[in-house]
Structure formats: C-alpha cells, structure tokens
Amino acid sequence: MKVSVRIEQNIREPEVVILTDRMTAEVEEILQKLSEKTPQMLAGFCEDTVRVLAPEEILRVYAQQGKVFAGTEAGEYLLRLRLYELEERLAPYSFVRISNSEIISLKKVRHFDLSFTGTICVILTDGTKTFVSRRYVPRIRQMLGM
C-alpha cells in the first residue's frame, strides 16, 4: 500500500482520500479505523475504587468464575462488560481472542512459544503466561504469517 501526505496552505480541515481499484478487507479496515471516535475508555473496579483504563495499558481481558477481569501492569480490575462486548471494543487496538475466555493485546506480547504440541504459549510483557486454545491456533498462526 502506498501512503502519502500532501500539505497545502489553503486547506483548513484534514481530508483523507483513498484511491483503489476495488473495495477490499484492507480498505474497509482503514475506513473503520479512520471513522472511529475518541479512544474507548473502560471502567475498572478494584475494591472500593474505580479506575479509568485506556486500551493501551491492558495486557489481557479474561473471564473467570462468571466475572470479567482486565489485567494491567498495575494489577487486575473487574469489568462490568461481557467478553464479547470487550472483544468488539478492543479489536481496533490490536486485541485478539485466544480462547473462549481470554482476549490479549498483541502489542503486549513478549513472545510466542511454539514448542507445545498443538497449541501456542503466549508470554506477555509482565511475564504472564497463557495459552492459545486449539480452536484459535489457526487464526493466530495466520495473523503471525505462519
């Protein structure tokens, strides 16, 4: 894909024009990202306090014992949204589902360990170790270009 920026003194508001021969998934993704509103913030609950969580600070989101938690470098926070709602909200920020009960930030992955037969071990930047379930392995392999 070719990207260019042209600066003109008489333009008062930024304008984005996409030139293409056909509509593709890549073009649709670009359109979606450009039309997004302000970054989504999430309310994370920890004991008697509520903290605003930016998607960039979240390592993973997981369901455990009927509740949904966000793991960050600063700790674990209870969220009051369902996992599928969070998956939709966080998808533009490079989050991907790795199991029925977990979503991770690809930007917070230290490395993938492929030595396990049939599955992938994921080590996050804080040292947390989690696993891609067999059902989601093909999707992760495709995303990694393997």
Index terms:
alpha+beta; 3 helices; 146 residues; five-stranded antiparallel beta sheet
- Described by the principal axes of the CA atoms, the overall outline is globular
Corresponding CATH architecture of the domain at 42-143:
Beta Barrel
pLDDT averaged residue by residue: 88
Strand content: 25-35%
CATH superfamily of the domain at 42-143: LytTr DNA-binding domain
**CATH topology description of the domain at 42-143:** OB fold (Dihydrolipoamide Acetyltransferase, E2P)
SS content category: alpha+beta
Low-pLDDT stretches: none
Question: Main beta sheet, described?
Answer: 5 strands, antiparallel
Distance between the termini: 21 Å
List the helices and strands in order. Answer: HEEEEEHEEEEEH
Number of beta-strand segments = 10
Q: How many individual helices?
A: 3
**What's the Cα radius of gyration?**
18 Å
Structure description:
There is one protein chain. It contains three helices and ten strands; from the N terminus they run αβββββαβββββα. The protein is α+β, with helices and mostly antiparallel strands. It has a domain at 42-143: LytTr DNA-binding domain (OB fold (Dihydrolipoamide Acetyltransferase, E2P), Beta Barrel), CATH 2.40.50. It has a five-stranded antiparallel β-sheet with strand order 5-4-3-7-6, with helices on one face. Strands 8-9-10 form a three-stranded antiparallel β-sheet, with no helix packed on it. Strands 1-2 form a two-stranded antiparallel ribbon. The mean pLDDT is 88.
